[in-house]
Amino acid sequence: MAQRNHSGTQNWLLQV
């Protein structure tokens, strides 16, 4: 899971 602090905020939606 790429849950970072910058792009991870919207990246988790793609890796749901």
What does this structure look like?
The protein is mainly alpha-helical and 16 residues long. 25% of the residues lie in helices and 0% in strands. It has 1 helix and no strands. The protein starts with 7 loop residues before the first helix and ends in a 5-residue tail after the last helix. The model has no long low-confidence stretch (mean pLDDT 66).
Can I get a quick summary?
This protein has one helix at residues 8-11. With 16 residues, it is mainly alpha-helical.
Instruction: Please compute the radius of gyration using only Cα atoms.
Output: 6 Å
Label the structural class.
mainly alpha
| Residues in β-strands, percent | under 5%
Number of strands: 0
Largest sheet: none
Q: What multimeric state do the chains show?
A: single chain
What is the straight-line distance between the termini?
A: 9 Å
Poorly predicted ranges: none
The number of helical elements comes to 1
Shape: elongated
What's the overall average pLDDT, rounded?
A: 66
Order of helices and strands: H
